[in-house]
Structures are given as structure tokens and as C-alpha cells.
Amino acid sequence: MDMPLKKNFIVGLQNDAYELAMSAGKLLQMYFRDPLSESQDLKVSYKDSKGRDPVTIADKNVQDFLSEEIKKRYPDHGIVGEESDSTEDSLPDIVWVLDPLDGTRNFMHGFPCYASSIGVMYKGLPIAGAIFIPWPNQNPGIVIHASYSNGCKINDKPLEIPAMKEIDPNAINTLPGSFAGRFKFDSQFSSKSGESRMGGSIAYEMSLVALGITEYAVISGSHLWDVLAGIVLVNESGGRSLMQKAGNGLRSDTGVWSEFGAVIESWEPGLTKVSDLRRGVSPLLLAQSDIINTLATNIQLKQNPIKKIAKSIFSQNMISI
Question: Which helix (H) or strand (E) segment is 162 a member of?
Fold first, then answer.
């Protein structure tokens, strides 16, 4: 990727994202349920009619804090946040993408698996990211952060991940709850696929891949604010981020895994709008570089039932002919 931005500037973005993510984590800690004292009133509301997409005062207040701080430091940059309302504002070349609280349902029930995610992109390309996650022996938690071609860190310490040369069938991975309905393992790979977990926070799960705690992750049903920072972290920690989409790439029987590139292929400053970034993101596969090709050829999308029926009918017609 050709990067016209200077290294010092990109590192500066990373450092600011790190500082802001840690501040966001401290704010979230103030709202998190303490089993030893009276619980905070999170003033939960829902963004959908079925009560499946909650938002709390913690989400909103952290979003406001992050937006205000970014505007102070970078008044010419754009901001897209999960809890922001604007959909038609035109965007400049550099945009901050925020998920103030990823794993809101976990958070509101007192389940300590959540994250605050801050990503930065240049003309649609992920260039910096920082994710806060709570950690048992660190108060309030840790921030994993990275930037393009500058490696990955945990707080102030460079992250070093041992090379993973082959898939470990005893390792753990994170899969979405919808995995069985949408994906399938190759039959010979199932016994080697490892033990699956589900965290309930996409940014948290991506952080675990970057840290080398989980072997790989499949992400489905996400939005840009869930994954942008995590993609930078995984890529800079020695891993790769693949997206399932049509085109040339690592082919399976029913789809294609390709490198995650630009969010929008033809970025037009002033013409690209917030609404262009609020669409869902295609399924992602994240793992260390040495094993991801094997995973990509063994994790496939299930065939669409309608296409399967059509294929069956076509095959029968061919036989009758």
C-alpha cells in the first residue's frame, strides 16, 4: 500500500488513539456494575423495536467524550461513531471510527467482556487503531494499539507474538453465534479446528487474536466501528485480516476470502458520506499469517438454500438430457 502520510504523523495518531482508549476505559469502569455495591443506573434504551440493540448512558457519554477530544486535537478530521446520528455529512480523507462500548449487552448485565474501540483510516484504508479491554490484574485494563508498518503494543510495551507455524487442534478460537447457520468447516478439518468460544464483543475477540491468546476468529454481522481498529491490531501483530467477498483471492467451494483492503474503493473527499460507512461489513477471518491460508480453505460459507435447490434442479435436467 502506498502511504503518503509521514510516519511521525501516523505514530502520533496511534499515540492519541492509545491515550483516548485508556481514558474511555476509565470512564466505562465508573459505570460498570460492582457486585459489592449498588449498581449504576445505565438508563438503557434500544435502537430497534425488538430490544436486541441496546444503548446505555455509558455508550453515549464515552462517545461524546471521544468526539470532543478528537475535534480539539484534529479539527479537520472526520468522525464516525456507532452512537452518532449524522448520516449525510461529507467526510475528509482522515476519519476516526469509534465504538465507545462494544459489548453493550455484556456490560449492562455485569459480564466483564467488553471493549472501547478507536480506529483511524486514510481514504478508507485502516492506518491506526487502539482497543481498550478490561484485564483482571490491570486497573482499569489494557490498551492494545498499533499503526501502519509500526508494529503493535500493549500499553507502552511492544507486543511480541511467537510465530505460529501450524494449526493447534487444542487451541481456542472465537466464532459467532451464527457460525453453524452460515459457515461450515471442511469435514476433514473439523477435528482440528480447536475449541470455540464466543465473547459477545467483536473488538474484544479481535484483540485476543492480536495478543495471540486465541488462534483465530471469524467475525460476522459487524459494522465498521466494530472491526476497523481490530484489523490494524491483527495485521501489525503478525496476522492477516481476510474478508469474504467475490473476486480473486483464496477460493473455497462456495466463496472467496480476500485481503481486507480499503473500506471504500474510490474515496472522494467531500463526496464520501457518513452513510457510506454505516453499512454492514462482510464476514471476516483473522489469524496469524502462517496458518490463515489453511483456515481460509477449510472455513466456507454454506451454500444459499435457493442456489442449492436451483443447482439440484439443473443437475437433474442435465441427467435427463
Answer: none
